[in-house]
Automatic annotation (TrEMBL):
Statement: the UniProt record of this protein carries the keyword Transmembrane: yes
Record field: transmembrane: 189-215, 221-238
Keywords: Membrane, Transmembrane, Transmembrane helix
Name used for this protein in its record: Transmembrane protein
């Protein structure tokens, strides 16, 4: 969000508070009392319309005024139901809102400009040489053509604050790095192997139950000795597959301007400038068997440069698995994240606060980035600044 946008947002909030204060001075009512009267009038208008138009839905009324009143009331009812069914979430939302008001009141800290020397400032050529040094070799350049993946995603968000979040869209961030998950990888391989071991152990065990009394005789312990360890190993692999999840991510580093690719089954990861990563959406909605296998929309992350030691293959990575909108949003979020001329979007705050709370970086192998700690309140574990860089 630009400085002009932030200024206009602050002006809007200030104008709203002034209007509320003037209204309270004029009629002597509080904001809550005024909203209660407004709702009573809205409900009366809707009930009157329903009496005149029985068996009709006011949210589909031709009268735009009645339709808007019905939609407003519907939104209020949904909010009341959410408050009733999710008291813990509402308490958390209210706590965060109170904290934000507290931070804004402390104007000196809220608007303080902290050093940004840690952000990448190198040119593309300098970062390319740095990536070559990390990879231990030069790059090959490719041109990507595909009959299936033809829709290239935009590399910029329509608004810096409306990107992917921690709760979905395959994006996580600790403020220094942002991760996008690879659709295939070690964690998925371990998941498949664990299910195979567990299902095989159960199936073969029940088959052997039929023949235990006739064949095994004094060796009835043999099936248990074989299938019990198979099931235990499969269950352990399924439970702890997340240990390898960090190997299956793209890491966009805002402090170096480089991207680290995932570990493949036979190749080590490599580094490249973020400008050399593009993402395409499939023009067909299917992955898997053409004879009726699973059909899931995926996107393809394509490095336009790759190390010279990749002699027989050109690396490409399936990402996403949700839908075109979410996948494109995740890619645009990552590319906007790497733009050091603007602060981080507010949609990333929840993820940053999560990693700050557990004091881990995004790989959960190191501590939370020291450069980002001044932007968060150590007690509330919440962003307490106007902007986060």
């Amino acid at each position: 969000m630009s400085s002009d946008d932030k200024k206009s947002e602050e002006e809007r909030i200030f104008d709203e508070l002034v209007e509320r204060y003037i209204a309270e001075e004029e009629d002597g009512l509080t904001h809550e009392e005024r909203e209660k009267i407004k709702r009573e009038n809205r409900v009366n208008a809707i009930n009157q319309w329903c009496a005149e138009n029985p068996n009709r839905d006011p949210t589909r009324a031709k009268d735009k005024t009645i339709k808007q009143l019905a939609l407003d009331e519907e939104a209020v009812v949904r909010l009341e139901e959410f408050r009733k069914n999710n008291p813990e979430k509402m308490a958390e939302i209210e706590r965060r809102g109170e904290n934000k008001s507290k931070y804004r009141d402390n104007r000196a800290t809220y608007k303080e400009q902290l050093p940004r020397d840690y952000l990448h400032k190198d040119s593309y050529e300098a970062r390319l040489k740095k990536a070559e040094a990390l990879n231990g070799c030069g790059f090959k350049t490719r041109t990507f053509k595909s009959k299936r993946f033809t829709d290239e995603y935009a590399a910029k968000l329509s608004s810096p604050d409306s990107g992917s979040t921690l709760e979905g869209h395959w994006v996580e961030s600790d403020g220094k790095q942002l991760a996008i998950s690879w659709f295939g990888g070690w964690s998925n391989l371990f998941t498949a192997l664990s299910f195979l071991l567990m299902v095989s152990a159960v199936m073969f065990f029940f088959v052997d139950l039929v023949v235990i009394g006739f064949v095994w005789e004094d060796y009835r312990w043999v099936p248990f000795a074989i299938y019990a360890p198979m099931f235990i190993v499969g269950f352990y692999m399924l439970k702890h597959r997340a240990i390898l999840a960090h190997r299956d991510n793209f890491y966009f580093n805002r402090h170096t301007g480089l991207v680290k690719t995932p570990h493949t089954l036979f190749r080590k990861p490599f580094y490249l400038p973020y400008e050399d990563i593009v993402c395409y959406g499939a023009n067909e909605r299917n992955v898997g068997s053409a004879r009726g296998g699973s059909r899931v929309f995926v996107s393809l992350m394509v490095p336009l440069k790759y190390p010279k030691h990749y002699r027989f293959t050109k690396p490409t990575f399936y990402v996403g698995g949700s839908n075109r909108q979410w996948d494109s949003l995740a890619y645009a979020t990552a590319m906007t994240f790497m733009d050091t001329s603007i602060p981080l979007g507010t949609h990333l705050y929840q993820s940053i606060e999560y990693y700050f709370k557990i004091d881990k970086d995004i790989t959960e192998k190191h501590g939370f980035p020291e450069e980002l700690k001044p932007y968060l309140d150590p007690t509330d574990c919440q962003v307490n600044r106007q902007e986060v860089w």
